[in-house]
Amino acid sequence: MGDPSAGTKGYRADMKLVTAIIKPHKVDDVKDALKAAGLTGMTIDEVKGFGRQGGKTEIYRGAEYVVDLLPKVRVETVVPDELADQVAEIIMVAARTGKIGDGKVWISTVDKVMRIRTGESGPDAV
Amino acid sequence: MIDTGDTAWMLIATGLVLFMTPGLAFFYGGMVRAKNMLGMLMQNFFAMGLMAILWVAIAFSLAFGNFGDGGIIGNLDFAWMRNITSDAGPDAFALTIPFVLFCAYQMTFAVITPALITGATADRFKFKAYAVFIAVWLVIVYAPVAHWVFAGGWLAKLGALDFAGGAVVHINAGAAALAVVLVLGKRHGWPREGMHPHSLPFTLLGTGILWFGWFGFNAGSALGANGVAAQALMNTFLAASAGMLGWLLVEQIKEGKPTTLGAASGAVAGLVAITPCAGFVGGMSPILIGFAAGVLCVLAIRLKFRFGYDDSLDVVGVHLVGGIVGGLLLGFFADSKVNKLVTNEGVFLGGGFSLLWFQFVACAVTFAFSFVASFIIAKVIDKTIGMRVSEEDEAEGLDFSQHAETAYSFGSTGSMDRLN
User: Fold this and answer.
1) What is the complex's ipTM, to 2 decimals?
2) Does A95 reside within a domain?
3) Phi-psi bin for B192: left (phi > 0), alpha (psi -120 to 50), beta?
């Protein structure tokens, strides 16, 4: 791992990955809120998981099946360090319904970010 | 003497019944897991290939030779398309349509009857074993039973009635399905593991096609464009509708939610039960028959969990039970005003219990013969080429393990390079 103070281009601990697991129907609210706050990108994927929400029951010809891995959406966006808390807050507000199963947000450190098209790195790349 | 109106209707009816087999393929296909979709479609489509050829090669002759002899089997008079002419054919048949058309119409029944079994055996039947099984089954089981009932064989002479195949098609296939699943064994993971339908839209589409095609199946069994055909069509429609309502009512009471799979299953149960009755009953009786089938079949599909046989898509619960319900209720509702072929009227029409007894005999004998013969055929195939795919192939799914294909490939990621 590079030394964060060494000044090697891009190897600076000044980028954060904000990851959120949210309810699928909240994707547009989160996206619009992030856009409104000036963010220029986010990535989502459809995932399944379990948490405190528990499962739901489906019935096919009288046979009941518990579906305990529920569909969720994972949102990821890489932001400069100083924006991370604010972005996490925006996601939390936008994704909140107040009911169980609203999901989680976490922030983690990113070693290096590069833009594939130009080769720019660090905050310039996001 | 050929009648052009009768001929026109039976040409259409033949197409309608043939269309039921792809309908059945999608009815069943939607209910299996995605990895077995092509395996299910293939087993049904393949019946349209192999059964048709075997039908004209030998099975039609074994079923319809010695017409009206009161016996147990036909002969080889019509084998290999011999004597299958485009005039009205032998006098014994008393046809008003070309004999070749009669053969083609009956061929569509010979295609779908073995295909019905595929619902019970879903997800684990080795394709080669399936092909051999239905070929042998058509000749050894279907042809004689068709002779007993449709060709003036011993059950018909006894006085049992079966308008369009409640015994020949549904009890016969249902009993065979039960026998074959006992030889095949349960799917790995059943009943603990979730094996729910991958596409109920396909199941509902298939149900619609079956319902549509069933008009040809039942109204076509009048073998002409006449009042009996019209009555059969109305009865078919009403029984399907009432079957759907009966099944949904039980679901609503027991589980609190009416399901789309229940609507589809109930309609098919009603269609199965009206099949033996279609051209023999009238008035409100088709509604009672269909409703009874819907209610009884939704209860009967629980039996597999109690007794531990893995009838994957409930062929026993719907076709065997529905066929018996229809066959026995005909003993109550048969009406000579609807069809002059009804010589012993049903219990409710004041005809006493003789017809009900004949119906019971027909149901019991068809069940017993089909079950025993199918069990023996399946056992012999199991001991020789093996009935079942390997555990690994079953886990991978029939689509890839039996046919080297995949039903669905969504998205553009992942590469597929040509090898040759």
Assistant:
1) 0.82
2) yes
3) alpha
